[in-house]
Specification:
mainly alpha
Length: 469
């Protein structure tokens, strides 16, 4: 048996070339390619350690928006992998597995796939699910779970029939943890009850249900019914918690509400924030494949309104760090609150930057005390964008990232490109180019988007080369 047999169609129908026409319709395509090309060229001017931090995302976007052949894509990705570039091993693995499936592993230990989400997906979509599961089943039990657990997220978006076929294969290989996760992630609400009714080892059902109870959130379904059935109060709590899971599964890019809930235990406020975000998604005002900014703004402001003390909300968010490709000076440890300050600032400045308002806004009431000291600089730079030469600002380590942020918010992508390409030093230039290439992709084909990414990947990119449907 080959998993997904209808998708093993050969390279002639594989992206990236098949998507070249769609990418060409993107107005920001030239800027995305300019940023990607610059990152790939200029990374080699950096010291080796710093250079390893740049290139994988740029290469992927160049492949997709530039319509590179698979041969050219492989050559580019392999060079970055061999140079030790962060995430390049997964990019190269995805390309190799798109061509050769499980054979791309070359008999290596399948445990190495644990962190390689793109490679895992490519193997499965190539049609080699059976080979992969057989290799996992040959491992000692304690080594099976980590890689098995990554399979469910990488195919969260695939049709039920494919998940059912792979779940059946997992059952034959006695990979019951994986089998349960795949069943729980199906859109068919009756799939889990049928699985429970036919599962041979009833003593394991309670643990499997507990471990995968959240998984139906990936497709918007209610949580799995707990075994034994809890009392009414516990069921109500589980339903509220699951609403936050569903929101996190639908939110674009990254989520902070789940972490906030875990740290505070404030279920009521978190549920209100989750429902507010879900309502905006349903209304089309938040795009699931778009940027995190509108979702974070809604969640944050709802939390402050719903909580007992907005200052407690802010203090909690200040304690929550985040790893992100976004440039959020000062460099170093970046908190959720730091990133939210910039989201709030851009929301306030947006009408002025886009020409919908003639007067600069007053300082928002919901920026942090730390950012209040920065606000005058943001308004000063906003007011001078069209009257002051920008190139000299590119050498100012404080002003350069702010100017780039303001140009992006203004939708002035041509000036953004000219400015970023002139920024010094090189490491700042590459960081800004990577950041805004990724953001511009989110407004175009959104190749770096994956369903439930905010819940499942915590900022880890997934490089997809899916066959055409």
């Amino acid at each position: 048996m080959r998993f997904l047999p209808g998708l093993a169609l050969g390279l002639s129908v594989l992206a990236p070339a098949a998507h070249a026409e769609d990418a060409a319709a993107c107005p920001a395509q030239p800027v995305i390619l300019a940023f990607s090309d610059m990152v790939l060229a200029d990374r080699e001017t950096l010291p080796r350690l710093e250079a390893r931090g740049f290139g994988a995302e740029a290469a992927y976007l160049k492949i997709r928006y530039g319509g590179l052949s698979m041969d050219a894509a492989a050559e580019l990705a392999h060079a970055l992998r061999d140079a030790g570039v962060r995430e390049a091993i997964d990019l190269a693995g995805a390309i190799d597995a798109t061509r050769d499936g499980f054979g791309a592993l070359d008999n290596a230990d399948p445990v190495q796939l644990n962190g390689l989400v793109s490679t895992l997906r490519a193997i499965l979509l190539h049609g080699d699910g059976e080979k992969l599961l057989a290799a996992i089943a040959s491992l000692p039990p304690e080594r099976q779970v980590p890689v098995s657990g990554r399979i469910v997220p990488v195919i969260a978006d695939r049709p039920d029939e494919e998940k059912a076929e792979l779940a059946a294969s997992a059952g034959r290989h006695k990979l019951f943890f994986l089998q349960a996760g795949l069943v729980a992630s199906r859109r068919d609400a009756n799939a889990w009850s049928a699985f429970v009714a036919g599962f041979p080892d009833t003593s394991r059902l309670s643990d499997l249900t507990r471990m995968w109870s959240w998984t139906p959130a990936l497709v918007g379904n209610p949580a799995l019914p707990r075994i034994p059935v809890p009392d009414a109060a516990a069921q109500a709590t589980q339903k509220s918690l699951h609403t936050v899971w569903i929101m996190a599964a639908r939110a674009p890019e990254r989520d902070f509400l789940m972490t906030y809930l875990n740290q505070t235990g404030d279920i009521a406020a978190a549920e209100k924030a989750a429902n507010a975000v879900l309502a905006e998604i349903a209304a089309g005002r938040i795009r699931q494949e778009g940027l995190l900014d509108p979702a974070w703004l809604v969640a944050y402001r709802t939390l402050r309104a719903a909580g007992h003390d907005p200052a407690v909300v802010d203090t909690t968010l200040e304690s929550m760090s985040i790893n992100t490709r976004r440039i959020v000076p000062p460099t170093g440890n970046v908190s959720i609150r730091d990133l939210l300050d910039r989201v709030v600032a851009i929301d306030a400045l947006g009408p002025y930057l886009t020409g919908k308002a003639d007067v600069l806004p007053g300082m928002p009431v919901d920026i942090s005390a730390k950012f209040q000291a920065e606000w005058p600089l943001w308004t000063e730079l906003s007011g001078s964008l069209k009257s002051v030469p920008l190139t000299p600002l590119g050498k100012d380590p404080v002003k350069a990232p702010i100017v780039a942020e303001l140009l992006f918010a203004a939708g002035d992508h041509a000036r953004l490109a000219d400015f970023v390409l002139a920024v010094e030093p090189a490491e700042t230039r590459l960081a800004l180019a990577t950041d805004f290439a990724i953001r511009l992709d989110r407004g175009c084909a959104s190749y770096l988007h994956h369903p439930a990414e905010a819940l499942l990947f915590a900022g880890q990119p997934i490089f997809k080369f899916d066959p055409e449907k």
